[in-house]
Amino acid sequence: MIAETVCSAVSAAGLGIAVVTAYRRRFLAAARIAAYALVPVGLVLTGVVGWLSDTALSPTAWAGFGVLAAAWLLFAATRAVERRRGGAGAEHGTPADTGSIRPGATAPASSTPALRQGRGRGTAQGQAQGQSQGKSPASGDDFSDIEAILKKHGI
């Protein structure tokens, strides 16, 4: 009962401010103030205020809010630990960690970049020559620029 009265008073005050704002020829601001002023009355008429007051006095509802808060805290703590570790989880075999980069993981062998295909190394013959000399197709000058960037950033 008190909540409905307070919401009605807040709406009446807001509508009064909207009228004064419209009198000053600031119609857009007045319309926005009126919209905000009508929200409390709308909440009372839809029953949301009654539901909230019943929920606020229910011990079962507060226990539920406590469980939700504990779940949120666990989620936030695990995200913080995950970010601090750099994305690698503590368990290396969990399905949730399939997208993260693990220490000691190697990239699969790949072909040379598309920009270097015209120079002989991108062709099958160039790859076969590189492998016959004891070099893998991804070694050598292909990653020197990437290594320089990583060293520049201390990685």
Provide a short characterization of the protein structure.
This protein is an all-alpha fold and 155 residues long. 62% of the residues lie in helices and 0% in strands.
SSE string, helix = H, strand = E?
HHHHHH
End-to-end gap: 64 Å
Tell me the number of helical segments per DSSP (H or I, 4 or more residues long): 6
Strand pairing plus helix content: what structural class? mainly alpha
**Fraction in helix:** 55-70%
Overall pLDDT confidence: 77
Gyration radius, rounded: 32 Å
Runs in which pLDDT lies below 50 for 5 or more consecutive residues are none
Shape: elongated
Kindly estimate the percentage of residues that lie in beta strands according to DSSP: under 5%
Main sheet characteristics: none
Total E-strand runs: 0
Provide keyphrases for this structure.
mainly alpha; 6 helices; 62% helix; 0% strand
Describe, in plain words, how this protein is organized in 3D.
By secondary structure, the protein is an all-alpha fold. The protein is 62% helix and 0% strand. Helix 1 (2-23) runs antiparallel to helix 2. The longest helix has 27 residues, at 59-85. The model has no long low-confidence stretch (mean pLDDT 77).
